[in-house]
Amino acid sequence: xxxxxxxxxxxxxxxxxxxxxxxxxxxxxxxxxxxxxxxxxxxxxxxxxxxxxxxxxxxxxxxxxxxxxxxxxxxxxxxxxxxxxxxxxxxxxxxxxxxxxxxxxxxxxxxxxxxxxxxxxxxxx
Length: 125
Ligand SMILES: [Zn+2]
Ligand SMILES: [Zn+2]
Known about the structure:
about 120 residues; 2 domains; 4 helices
């Protein structure tokens, strides 16, 4: 049966959280997110000095994005950690096994499917 998990029953719904942010805060986060995405795109498509600079830009944009989201003035911890101190995994991942953390694009080594919406077949037995 399912073991205790640090994965919450509810997901972090980025779209819902975003809708509740002030325009100023959205502008700050949006700018960092765009820069992170563009930097990663350049790092994957360019060689030479552009690749090197873009790899560093990925790191710095992600650091600034994380500070804006999790630092002072950022989201309340309860928006991503539930009352039982379990983490709300971002919704982009879809179903997640609460026992092992596997998901559709990261299945268990031996292969697995869904026994329930919160437990994979590898963990159900
Ligand atoms: Zn599992
Ligand atoms: Zn699994």
